[in-house]
Amino acid sequence: MTPADVEPLLQSMFIDAPGTSLRDEDRKKAVEVAAFLTELERIGTRGPLVDAAAGKSYLGLLAAELLGVDEVTVIERNEKQVHNARHALSKLKHAKVTTTVGDVEDASCWPSKPRVVIGLHACGAASDAIIDAAIAREAKWLLLVPCCYPSPAFAHQRADALGISGAAEVRKKFVQSLIDSERALRLEAAGYETSVIPFVAPTVTPHNLMFRARRLMNQKRMHDAKATLTNSFAWSSASRA
């Protein structure tokens, strides 16, 4: 999958004005979407698939159209974005997609047992909600690229305890690393073999880390992750909010 495969569909689906062309930011989006779909292709394109906190649902729509993924569910709380996704969907030939207006924390928005859960640039607490939902529904795979990070008190308390500099960029990197570590451990503790990889170059987007998690239920990994969470991340799930 290459950006050249994605760009024509982005143009036809989301840019209606005659004579207009893709902007630089659209071309960067095409790079991200192509890279994400390549990862999805590697793990298999059988559904059901949930595109969570989907925005305009570039991923869900193009996964259905280009990869032939069946049973795609799009979840997005912004009605305007869902309207845009439905408008784009009407232009596609093959995609079979259900669009849902709702929050990713709302269990009624989700299919009972998705095989794959995906999320591109899920903001702040939405990434944690997607992780929790994927675990609760025993999804086989999770591919998640978080976006902006929350700034929870526990992370700053930990930084203070360790004497981490208060300089903004130094503190930010520490807090982000702490949050991502907890997310990876939470997935491991729930039975997911988890890796965190750069899926595109940081020149495309600074938010370029993908959580790639596969549900294997390896008891030793689960035990070790739970022990680390207990010993090193001794704060409740409510503290993440």
UniProtKB/TrEMBL annotation:
InterPro entries: Methyltranfer_dom, SAM-dependent_MTases_sf. It comes from the Bacteria. Residues 35-149 form the Methyltransferase domain. One of its GO terms (cellular component) is cytoplasm. PANTHER family: GLUTATHIONE S-TRANSFERASE C-TERMINAL DOMAIN-CONTAINING PROTEIN (PTHR13369:SF0), PTHR13369. This is Methyltransferase domain-containing protein. It comes from Archangium gephyra.
